[in-house]
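Read as chain and fold; for instance:
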Amino acid sequence: AYIGTTAQRVGLLGTVIGIVAATVSIGQNLSDGAAGAVTNALPAVGQALVSTAVGFVIAIICDFFRYLHTQGE
């Protein structure tokens, strides 16, 4: 249960870090125009989405094993 809960929080932290990095990247690249700024920010948005997905996958796996463990009792 602890790992599942922590994984969700770490995934959310990664999401926040990725979105902050994307926002900073957009701000730094606005001189390239809107399209260039957004294009440069996309890797950070991808990082945010991957960290969210990994956190949820770990949490779901932990919840599944916890469910199996409680069914055996």
